[in-house]
């Protein structure tokens, strides 16, 4: 068992094999946890360096306020950057999907439909 509480060796029905989708979800969760831990560590380091002049046994009132405000600003900035990044990724994915679908050949069943629709259109103009 690893530090994130998952066990890749225990599979469905004791077969020792796991569904690839389940493994992928566990990996995604582990990555999210690691990212959250890194974010918290960076935020703590930066705010501590900014707000605490002389480390002691406890934080005075102004240090506590400074750390709280620093962490709020840090999270707000991170959330803004994260939303912008995700939006850019979604736009890029949409653009790539559009480009890819335009570049792919028309499947045979769609070619027949297009051909017959042209035939029917041509017949309509003949009558």
From TrEMBL:
Residue ranges of the TM segments: none
Major localization listed first in the record, in broad terms: mitochondrion
Entry superkingdom: Eukaryota
The keyword Transport belongs to this UniProt entry's keyword annotation: yes
Domain Tim10-like: 26-86
Membrane-topology descriptor: Peripheral membrane protein
Keyword field: Chaperone, Disulfide bond, Membrane, Metal-binding, Mitochondrion, Mitochondrion inner membrane, Protein transport, Translocation, Transport, Zinc
GO molecular function, one term: metal ion binding
An annotated GO BP: protein transport
GO CC, alphabetical: mitochondrial inner membrane; mitochondrial intermembrane space chaperone complex
Compartments (UniProt record): Mitochondrion inner membrane
Keyword Membrane included in the entry's annotation: yes
Assembly description: Heterohexamer; composed of 3 copies of TIMM8 (TIMM8A or TIMM8B) and 3 copies of TIMM13, named soluble 70 kDa complex. Associates with the TIM22 complex, whose core is composed of TIMM22.
Function, as annotated: Mitochondrial intermembrane chaperone that participates in the import and insertion of some multi-pass transmembrane proteins into the mitochondrial inner membrane. Also required for the transfer of beta-barrel precursors from the TOM complex to the sorting and assembly machinery (SAM complex) of the outer membrane. Acts as a chaperone-like protein that protects the hydrophobic precursors from aggregation and guide them through the mitochondrial intermembrane space.
UniProt domain comment: The twin CX3C motif contains 4 conserved Cys residues that form 2 disulfide bonds in the mitochondrial intermembrane space.
Family: Belongs to the small Tim family.
Protein name (database record): Mitochondrial import inner membrane translocase subunit
Gene: timm13
């Amino acid at each position: 068992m690893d530090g994130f509480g998952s066990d890749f060796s225990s599979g469905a029905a004791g077969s020792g094999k796991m569904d690839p989708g389940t493994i992928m979800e566990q990996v995604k969760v582990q990555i999210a946890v690691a990212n959250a831990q890194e974010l918290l560590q960076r935020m703590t380091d930066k705010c501590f360096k900014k707000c605490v002049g002389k480390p002691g046994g406890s934080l005075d009132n102004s240090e506590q306020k400074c750390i709280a405000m620093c962490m709020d600003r840090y999270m707000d900035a991170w959330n803004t950057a994260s939303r912008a990044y995700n939006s850019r990724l979604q736009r890029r994915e949409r653009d790539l999907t559009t480009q890819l679908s335009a570049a792919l050949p028309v499947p045979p069943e769609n070619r027949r439909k297009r051909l017959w629709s042209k035939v029917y259109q041509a017949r309509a103009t003949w009558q």
